[in-house]
Design goal:
Elements lengths: L5 E6 L15 E2 L2 E2 H9 L8 E5 L2 H4 L8 E4 L7 H9 L6 E6 L7 H9 L10 E3 L1 E2 L3 E2 L3 E5 L3 H9 L5 H5 L4 E3 L14 H7 L4
Parallel strand pairs: 1-4, 1-6, 4-5, 7-11
Antiparallel strand pairs: 2-3, 6-10, 7-10, 8-9
Helix pairs in contact: 3-5
């Protein structure tokens, strides 16, 4: 798939309450998590097609190249679906890869493999997402067609805030992940310690 057909959205709008500090700036091997995610996807698309959605852009500019775009999440604290819908209104791409900023095990080869499979996705599907056995879809590590914006806005306008609730009403294709560890995120100090022993 041509890079112009795909954009990357990195969400960095959470309060990191369970972690006790900003997850996006936690360093692993000397690299902040938000930069780590950026570097993983930087060779997969044109760098001008990478966007960070956050209420606090000045907090993260120092960690990212000048070519990285920022979209202001406003108002803050309304959840990832609202932040995503705001980004959809500002990005011109057929597909969007939505990523949380706290996925330390993501790799460029895995992302590229997923991208290469996009042309085969059912045209009726608005998303291409991993599925967790008990939790349902993994909405913050997967692909969405730009055309999903209309249904997302309608769901939000009707009072919806849950990604899972919205996705239950959509046609979604499962993204089969070879290594489930790449979906592990860092929500708590215990999660982080499991990735970096003795942190």
């Amino acid at each position: 798939m041509a890079a112009s057909k795909l954009a990357i959205i990195i969400l960095a709008g959470g309060r990191s309450a369970r972690m006790g500090r900003d997850k996006a700036t936690i360093e692993i091997a000397g690299v902040p998590l938000i930069r780590r995610i950026y570097d993983v996807v930087a060779t997969c698309v044109d760098r001008g097609q990478i966007y960070v959605v956050t209420p606090w852009p000045e907090q993260y500019r120092q960690f990212l190249p000048d070519s990285c775009n920022f979209i202001l999440e406003q108002p803050p604290d309304r959840g990832p679906l609202m932040a995503f819908s705001q980004a959809l209104a500002k990005i011109n791409a057929n597909w969007l890869l939505l990523l949380a900023c706290d996925l330390p095990n993501l790799s460029t080869p895995a992302i590229q493999t997923w991208i290469d499979s996009l042309p085969s996705i059912d045209p009726q599907s608005i998303a291409y997402l991993p599925r967790h056995v008990s939790k349902g879809w993994e909405p913050l590590c997967g692909f969405y067609r730009q055309i999903c914006r209309e249904s997302a806005i309608e769901y939000i306008d009707n009072g919806g805030r849950s990604f899972q609730g919205w996705l239950k009403m959509q046609v979604v294709t499962e993204l089969v992940v070879a290594d489930p560890l790449c979906l592990v995120n860092c929500n708590t100090p215990a999660d982080l310690a499991a990735i970096i022993p003795n942190i």
